[in-house]
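From the shared-data thread, chain only:
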Amino acid sequence: MRKLHISIAAATLLGLSATPAMAGWKVVPHGMATAVAKSTLRVTPGEDWNQSSVRPVKQSEVWTLDGDSLNQLYFVSGLAAGGTLLRDSNKKSRPLPKMNGAMQLADIPEFFESSWRLGLNTSLFEMGAIEPTKLDGHDAVRFAYQYTVQGEMLTRKGIAVGTVVKGQLYLINFVAPSTYYFDRDRSKAQAIFDSARL
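Structure, as tokens:
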């Protein structure tokens, strides 16, 4: 397993420990269909990834190649009405938006953006291209974004694909620093998007 690097911002956003020694990690071997978030969602990675034992919400799972601050896959599988994309740790003063049972594909990018803005406490979030796509044959939406955590100089870029099946949200998100890691690992994330089976 590669040495993992965890940023405080990423750890806070996803509810992970900022201390790698306190987080449990296991290798997800390449070339094997792997169930994600204890659900029916399965993906087949092209290389070994590291899976965190901490799940920000029950329907989620976090993978990384080198550490959360360098490259991260965030899976959400089967999020039902009333659920949040991230751990709602500040629900009294700044509650996260909740999944709407009537959510349409066009609503997914806004739901994601609102959740990330609140989770990161940043206004420096910019949504990029939004386009229709497929996720295991289901109509889906693909979107790109970038953000900077206030007080940091580093810009992170991300791509995600999401769909709603039987009123439940399925989403795979890849995020990495815009410098080097996003471009290096984007195709690996895309291959995982393409391998997804619901």
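The mean pLDDT is 90.
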